[in-house]
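Hi support team,

I'm filing this because I wasn't sure whether my run with zinc ion finished correctly. The job status page said complete, but I'd like someone to confirm that the output block is well-formed before I use it downstream. Pasting the exact inputs I used:
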Amino acid sequence: MQIEVVGVKFRHGVHTYSFSPNGKDYKVGDRVVVTSGKDKGKMGNVKEVITKDSKLLVEGVNIVTKAQKANPMAGIQGGLNKIEAPLNASKVMVVCPSCEKATRIKHEIKDGKKVRVCKKCNEVIDI
Ligand SMILES: [Zn+2]
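And here is everything the job wrote out:
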């Protein structure tokens, strides 16, 4: 029996997949939607996956202001810079390219290859 792990909830399923809120379900270029926090509802493309921290860098999401010290030698102007900070992978969901819905991912083996499949429309997300 396979067990699906969603946060702290456990649910039994018939498919051979598991879901855990970590970086492994996401890939650079995925469209994701933020499901909690100050950026809830925002969409963006994954720019970077930091697997060891289970964090994602998402375009236009989780913008923080960082003070930049002036360094004339390096041609850097001082001031406040807005940059994207990594956010926890558990705070986002993938937007399925087929059904355009925020969805969870399941993993399936197709033709001997591990692929990610949308749990809502069962379309393969990886090309
Ligand atoms: Zn779908």
